[in-house]
Design a protein that fits this description.
Elements: H1 2-10, H2 32-58, H3 66-84
Amino acid sequence: MISELFRLITGRSRDADFVEEVTIKEARQPSRAVERLILVGWAIIVAKCFVVAWAIERFAIPIQPGWVIVPTLFMAAICTALYYWKD
């Protein structure tokens, strides 16, 4: 009933809503090179986290390592999730 009222107000015909063609795209396969790059990136990030924690303790820098490590891991996780959920 509401759709008929909408058609009456807009002046559209019933044939305007007819679907003429539907195409289905095949899902893209993940790129092995990009997955390796993500893995290497995560390895570098983990190494960086250990170096940051070590350097903060070694040089008595008055901050908590979490202030550097947590945002790094959070942003890396977002980038990884966006790659895998892109479709």
